[in-house]
Amino acid sequence: MFDRDDWLASYKEEIIDPDRVIIDPHHHLWSWPSMQPYQLEQLWADTTSGHTIEKTVYIECGWSYRQDGPEHLKSLGESEFVAQTASDAQKDPNKPQIAGHIGHTDMAHPSLDDTLDRHLEASNGLFRGIRDQGACETDPAMLIPGHAKKDKFIDPAFQNGVERLGERGLTFDCWIHHHQIAQVTALAQACPGTTIILDHFGTPIGVGQYEGKRDEIMAQWKTDIAELAKCSNVRAKLGGLAMPDNGWKYHEQEKPATSDQIVADQGDWYHYTIEQFGPERCMFESNFPVDRASISYHVLWNAFKKMAERYSEDEKQAMFYNTAKTVYSL
User: Fold this and answer.
1) Which of 12, 170, 199, 296 could serve as a FRET partner for 132 with CA atoms 20 to 30 Å apart?
2) pTM of the predicted model, to two decimals?
3) At what angle do helices 76-89 and 112-122 cross, to 10 degrees?
């Protein structure tokens, strides 16, 4: 699914607004045996493909965990990996730099503070917060199902952990599916001092039992997003809708998705989110290499720039750079 180099190379676009400086606040790196490696070399191939990407934020994906030791400390291996990769990147300062890292740990663990201290140390100053993959949809048609406990975000012990992040100046990213947005709202209300970031619009699913129900899903999604946006401590990432599980089937096309196709198919989701949260609480994200199954990096950012045309320069600056810079203290 992610071994798409030749297919992606079959379609290219001229770069729009090439001098706009961008922070990409959401990407992963991995070398899973079942997938094409996506490491610094591949990241740079994408981030230097035409747009002016200055900095990136690595988001946890379970890669490079320690193989032994206490279960709640195994994720320190990912922080160590990111720190080393970011150090390697500094050898070429003209390339985009990994400027922040969002890790993972058990938010309800009694040793949370100690674990956060260890992540801060292991990351060599890059650690900015935690992401929890709270997604719990396991439909067999999904490429990336979620296996989290269904009501994790409304567990008081979990909420106490998220609240502790805010007390320590750290953030909380959440990956969920569309039917869980109300639980993110409950979490945000319970932890008003913590900045909470909703990834990928709450991941509206479009495969399996959800295929053919996009209008129905969007109607409820709009209600849920509007309620979530009332929580002033929540920020929204604009991206991640080109995953195969979103159901657009771009990965089945003869050629990759075009920027115009992305705008036509997905623009309403973007503009509604921006309307509810305001540009100052939104940030465009690539979600690479996951969305790479459907679209090239340079084409995706062209789509973002086309969708941003209706907004003022200050609003564009927020969504392409300033919101991410502020949220992740870059």
Assistant:
1) 296
2) 0.97
3) 20
- d(CA 323, CA 221) in angstroms, rounded, equals 23
CB atoms under 10 Å from CB of 264, counted, come to 11
Cβ atoms of 52 and 20 closer than 8 Å: yes
Q: What is the largest CA-CA distance in the chain?
A: 52
E strand or H helix at 48:
none
Q: What is the C-alpha separation between 52 and 66, in angstroms, rounded?
A: 34
Buried b (16+ CB within 10 A) or exposed e, 243-262: bbbbbbebbeeeebbbbebb
pLDDT at 3 over 90: no
How far is it, in rounded angstroms, from Cα 307 to Cα 295? 16
**Crossing angle of helices 112-122 and 156-167, rounded to 10°:** 50
**Environment class of residue 70 by beta-carbon count within 10 Å: exposed (0-12), middle (13-18) or buried (19+)?**
exposed
Interatomic CA distance for residues 270 and 286, integer angstroms: 14
CA angle 207, 58, 168 (to 5 degrees): 110
Q: What is the per-residue pLDDT for 289?
A: 97
pLDDT(147) > 90: no
Residue ranges with strand state E in 72-138 = 97-103, 127-133
CB 220 within 8 A of CB 181: no
Cα separation, 97 vs 4, in Å, equals: 24
Do residues 235 and 229 lie in contact, with contact meaning Cβ atoms separated by under 8 Å? no
**226-268: per-residue pLDDT in tens?**
999 999 999 999 999 999 999 999 999 999 999 999 999 999 9
| Residue 33 pLDDT greater than 90, yes or no | no
Distance CA 94, CA 96 (A): 7
| C-alpha–C-alpha distance, residues 78 and 70, integer Å | 15
Token pair 């490429």 is found at 143
